[in-house]
Amino acid sequence: MIHGFPTSSFDWHAIEPELARRHRVLCFDLLGFGWSDKPARHNYRIGEQADLAEAVLAHFGVDETAILAHDYGDTVAQELLARQHDGRARWRLSRLGLLNGGLFPETHRPRLVQRLLASPIGGFISGLIQYPQFAKSMRAICSIRLPDDELESMWHLIEHKNGRAAIPRLIRYMAERRRFRDRWVGALLDAKVPVRMINGSADPISGAHMVARYQQLVPNADVVALDGVGHYPQLEDPEAVVAAWLGGW
User: Fold this and answer.
1) String of DSSP letters for 99-131
2) How far apart are CA 55 and CA 52, in angstroms?
C-alpha cells in the first residue's frame, strides 16, 4: 500500500485489518511523510520514492506483489508500473489498484493551499498552517466528517520531525507529473497487468472529472465509482473500497 500527500501509511488503518485476512500487507511511510525522516532541504523526487518502495520489497523478500495506491502514491505506482515495462524491476507486479489521485496533470484540480505551497512563498505558507486549517482543508475534500481523533493523528504525523518544513519540497511532485506525463500516463495506457481505479466521485480534486479522462484514454478501463465519496475513499467508505479491491478482476 502506497499512501498519499500530505499524510502517511496511517491512511490505511481502516482497511488494513480486513485485507490482512487475505494478503500479506506492507504499509510504509515514504520519505518526508509520517514516521520517516523529513530532511527540509532534500530534493524529493517520485523516482526516489519508487526506489524506496522497491527497497521495501527487497527487504521483505517480495518478488511478486499487488499494489494499492492513493493520491501521491498513485504517481509512485505509475513509476513502478513504468519500470515493469522497462524491464528494470526485479519483482513482478500482479495487479494495481488506484484510489483518487492526479493521474493526469490536465485534470488535476489542486486546492488553493496546494498551489500556494508549490509557489515561491511555499515555505512561508507551510509555517502558517496549524491544525485548524489542516482539519478544515481535509473536511472540504471528504464527503463525510472525518472524526477529530483521526484528523489529529494525521496532523501529529505531519508535524513529526518538523514535517511542515518539508512540505513545500514534497509538493513539487505536481510539477513532476507535468514533466513526466508521457512516461507515467504511457505506463497506464500500455499496462500489461490488471489495473482497477476505485474512485470517490465527489472528490473536488480528482473525482468524477478525472475518471472521465481515464475512461477516455485507457482502453477497457476498469473503474469502480463510489458515489458520494470524496478524496479519501479508504477512510470515508472502507467497506466499499475493500469490496472493490476483492471483487473479481
Assistant:
1) -S--SSTTT----HHHHHHTSTTHHHHHHH--H
2) 5
Give the contacts of 34 (CB within 8 A, at least 6 positions apart). 3, 7, 8, 9, 10, 157, 160
CA atoms within 13 A on the CB side of 147: 6
Model confidence, pTM: 0.96
Q: How far apart are CA 106 and CA 153, in angstroms?
A: 32
What DSSP designation does 15 have?
T
**Which tens digit of pLDDT belongs to each residue from 129-150?**
999 999 999 999 999 989 999 9
Radius of gyration of the chain (CA): 17
Euclidean distance between CA atoms 18 and 145, whole angstroms: 23
Judge contact between 28 and 57, C-beta under 8 A: no
The x, y and z cell numbers of residue 97, run together, are 489498484
pLDDT above 70 coverage of the chain, percent: 100
C-alpha cell at 143: 464527503
Please report which helix (H) or strand (E) contains residue 95, including its range.
Answer: strand 92-98
DSSP 143-180: SS---HHHHHHHHHHHHTTTGGGGHHHHTTHHHHHHHT
How many Cβ atoms are within 10 Å of 10's Cβ, its own excluded? 20
DSSP state of 5: S
